[in-house]
Amino acid sequence: MNKPELELVLFRGFCGSDVACVAGRVQLRSQLVPEFGAGGFRRRLKDAWRLVISRKVPRAEIELSFAGHDWQTATDSHGYFFSCHSANDVVADSSTRHHYRCRARHDICAEPITATGEVMTTDALAERLMISDIDDTIVHTGVANKLKMLWHLYFADSSARRPFPGMDRLLRRLHAGSSGSASNPMLYVSRSPWSIYPMLEAFFQQHDIPDGPVLLLRDWGISWRHPLPRRAEDHKQRMIDSAMRSFADLPIILIGDSGQHDPEVYADIAERDPARVQAIYIRDLGLSSARSKQLRAIGDRLARQGVEFVATSDTTGFTQHAEAKGWLSTAAPTPPDPMPGK
Question: Would you identify the CATH topology of the domain 6-120?
Fold first, then answer.
């Protein structure tokens, strides 16, 4: 019997002052080439199921090479790897995009497989690091409800997915910074499954959202025997800590929503290093009066440490705060928000 073919999927990594972090997945090769929302409902249903179904290859040996540094790691029980390594010899040029090489080996495959991934770096003009949640912060997904999230991610027509009003423009302006040409690094975190990575890439491109590494996209453990997503340990804080170590010389703005644990996670980060966190922006989803009260308490606690905490139901509040702080270029005035299109 022929051994199955493996596929090595690499995700965009990042490198700050002297630490590079990369991520990827080793999986069984699929014949599916999804069109992300094209065709009728039955076609989208079939493509979505084949895309999300688990095809993991755990314990694959991974060899990585970037900027003259070589190191090894292995895939976890879901077939993924996330690995950081010192990298203080990145070529100093005008480019903020570099490449790394990955080689994967596993007994179920006759030959090792190789691929080249992208690492985003920063330059001397960068003013701060932006770390933003995706789910229910940039785009409506209903992450708290897994069935609802599956519907929004896989079955809704791709052209119908829109960022919250004004959010795409705010991210572009934060990326450009006060100078209008800062190219501030943008990192995005999510609790979505890794399998939607191509959809997010297409979504960012469609709405001209500054691209950047996407962290924490996880496997939901979906299989034929377990057709619903399983609960997974939340590694968001660990991932953000890795990004903060990599971009150790930049202050940070953290952006999230009130639906999950973003306020608590971000507050913990800020309390550990209040001088580093310039602001926390939380989209208040209006879930309950009790949750709004919790947000006010978090804001009061952080204010005593000098950390600015802005919780608002729309993007305008974030934009006005960033403009008042001088973090946005005055050459790019804020246009009015369009009608909501969730």
Answer: Immunoglobulin-like (2.60.40)
Q: 28 and 5 in contact (C-beta within 8 Å)? A: yes
Beta bridge mates, 104: 62, 113
CATH (residue range 129-325)? 3.40.50.1000
- How many other CB atoms are there within 10 angstroms of residue 88's CB atom? 12
Half-sphere exposure of 12 (CA within 13 A, CB side): 19
Q: pLDDT (tens digit, 9 = 90+) per residue, 225-280?
A: 444 444 444 567 888 898 999 999 999 999 999 987 899 999 999 999 999 999 99
Give dist(CA 246, CA 240) in Å, integer: 10
Domain boundaries of the chain, sorted by first residue: 6-120, 129-325
Q: What pLDDT shows up at residue 39?
A: 53
The beta-strand segments (E) located in the chain are 6-15, 19-28, 61-66, 69-74, 80-86, 97-105, 113-120, 129-133, 186-189, 214-215, 252-257, 277-283, 308-312
pLDDT digits (tens, 9 = 90+) for 3-42: 777 889 899 999 987 899 999 999 887 655 445 445 554 5
- Across-strand partners of 278? none
User: How far apart are the C-alpha atoms of 294 and 84, rounded to whole Å?
Assistant: 35
For residues 314 and 282, give the distance between their C-alpha atoms in angstroms, rounded to a whole number: 10
Which pTM was predicted? Answer: 0.83
